[in-house]
Design brief:
CATH architecture: 3-Layer(aba) Sandwich
Structural class: alpha+beta
CATH topology: Cytidine Deaminase, domain 2
CATH class: Alpha Beta
Radius of gyration: 16 Å
Number of helices: 4
Number of strands: 6
Strand content: 15-25%
Bound molecules: tetrahydrodeoxyuridine
Distance between the termini: 25 Å
């Protein structure tokens, strides 16, 4: 028998402690909360993605009267990157919720980030932002250890 332990590392920041670039990304994600269409859950989530050329791409959750059709904020931003900015890679992702403690992306979104990290051959930096705290970490493996990936399909 062999016990395997997996540790994760997050850094907690206050907004004032962030770099100028990170403040800009957090403010962009906060502003993108107004793009949320969430009349059913009344829970707004937004996402701002910084590309390798510095551009910021926005997304927000889009709900539907047919509940299972709801799109998460992260998915809308990733789809915009793939469709509107083909060839660019992602540097940093900010996910914003208008509550004090940051929310963590759902399992579906974690798996989506895994796919984009794999296809862009890099780990992204992540900022999870609430009204007061901001959690930072590198690589979606932090939230999705032992992820299923295309490497499994090809081995
Ligand atoms: N939601 C996101 O946008 N991202 C997540 O990672 C988790 C949940 C949205 C979906 C739905 O519109 C609302 O939050 C409540 O679940």
């Amino acid at each position: 028998m062999n016990k395997i332990e997996i540790q994760i590392e997050l850094t907690q920041y206050l907004f004032e402690e962030l770099s100028v670039d990170d403040k800009e990304l957090i403010l962009a994600s906060k502003n993108a909360l107004k793009l949320s269409h969430s009349p059913y859950s009344k829970f707004k989530v937004s996402c701002a993605i910084r590309l390798d050329n510095g551009q910021i791409v926005l997304g927000a959750n889009q709900e539907n009267a047919s509940y299972p059709m709801c799109l998460c904020a992260e998915g809308t931003a990733l789809a915009a990157v793939a469709s509107q900015y083909h060839g660019r890679t992602i540097e940093k992702v900010a996910i914003h919720v208008p509550i004090d403690t940051p929310a963590s992306p759902c399992g579906f979104c974690r798996q989506s980030f895994k796919e984009y990290e794999t296809r862009m051959h890099k780990k992204f930096d992540y900022l999870l932002a609430g009204n007061t705290d901001i959690y930072c970490f590198q690589g979606i493996d932090t939230l999705l250890p032992l992820a299923f990936s295309s490497a499994d399909l090809n081995s």
